[in-house]
Every structure is written in C-alpha cells, then in structure tokens.
Predict the 3D structure of the following.
Amino acid sequence: MQWLFSRPAVLIWLLLVLTAAHQIYDKADRFWACSGRVLAPGNWLWLLLCWLVLKLVHELAHAVVCKKYGGSIREAGILFVLLTPIAYVDVTSAWRFRSKWQRIFTATAGMYVELGLAAAAALAWSRTDAGRSITCAST
C-alpha cells in the first residue's frame, strides 16, 4: 500500500480533491439539500459502519506511512473512551525520523486518506441522480 503515498499518487490525490471540490461548488444547492438526509434514523447503521471503516483506514494509513519511512508499529488496537470505541496505532517511532517532513506526513496520513475517500465519494455522488437533480429536499 506504500504506492498510495508516492509522489505520483499524491499528485493524483490532489487532482481528485480539486475535481471533487469543483463538483461540490458547482452543485452546492443540491449538495446541501441532500446533506439533510444523512443523519436520518434509517441511516444510522450505515453511518456507524462507514465510521468504523473510516477509522480503520485512517489508522492503517498512519501505520503504512510510518513503516514506509522505516518506523516500527509497536501496537494497534481499540480503546474505549466514555464507552466509545477509538482505534489507535502506536507510531511513536516516527519521532525519531530525521526529516520533519516524514514526521509530518506520518502524522497527517490519516487525514490524507480520509480526504481522498471523501473526494471519491463526492465525485460518485455528483454522478448520481441525487447529484443531478434537486429532489433530495423532499422527505
């Protein structure tokens, strides 16, 4: 999975994010009309499932980048804070990287992957009926 964090992949990611931002900007009225349905009670199970997958991918990204730069992963797991499961990966070995950019990229890898997934989802939405018509406002 280290290829996801190569320079060509970062350039493709940037193009993806900019294209998605443009699509959302062009269809802002439709986007906001549809966004009200996300928290509907019928979607809560899907939201939970998506949240769990996103957190897993987020933490996996930290681990992959840390390993890419020669760091070690001592442990990974799930903590329960106020009865809420929180995934974690111990990438403290990243503090020994000589390059501050490697430390920064290790720290931001989770956000990088989440933003890429959000951009892909936004592009997929913009190509669906919901992204083409204003019918989301009803319900």
